[in-house]
Amino acid sequence: YNGLPGADRWAAPAGSDNEVFYQNTRFRALNSVALEYQLTGNEDYAYGAIRLMEDFITKKGGWYPSGKPEGRGGFPDTLSTSGRAQAWAGTYDIFVKSQSMGAESATAILKGICDLGSSLYNVHAAAGNWVSSEMLALSNVALTFPEFADSDAWFDMATQKREEVFLFSAFPDGSYVEATGGYNRGAYDNAVSFKETIMQQGGNVTAEY
After folding, report:
1. What is the pTM of this model?
2. Fewer CB atoms inside 10 Å of the end CB: C or N, the chain?
3. Is the backbone peptide bond immediately before 76 cis, with ω within 30 degrees of 0?
């Protein structure tokens, strides 16, 4: 669906599977674009990525779940929000050095990342791979941007919930509670990434973890 005429409406293109829509809002490809920009110095990559983030903020940044105004920025669901939070927080320091990133763009994207953190703190799943992904993303945002006023609270909650969900995510034989190979691998990757993230910041997980 790349290259369809007209601007991105951040909705499912006609005739597409809904997964096209969800994956589009998660910005998973942003890390690859950032790496290509670092390797080549080609401003086209940075310009396209920055404008795409700005477009999303303009059209969907003010959205919040029904009855949950504190969840602003959480379009369209918490799993997509966590993917976007990981991508935006993980590439901001790369794109902010670009000549395509003016002060207004930098501020808008930084505020957008702050909204993502706030949304994940206030609106999240109760269990399963969703909350695992959400809390990993929230801890990364908190650690990447400690200057955010609520970063400490975000990190504390993310750490607590992430450990809780990990300790109750496997049966006694070690198999993952959501019985699919893909979810099993995703849960494993999240568990390892969480520990690596904590240790990179000079901390450690609990002995139980």
Report:
1. 0.89
2. N
3. yes
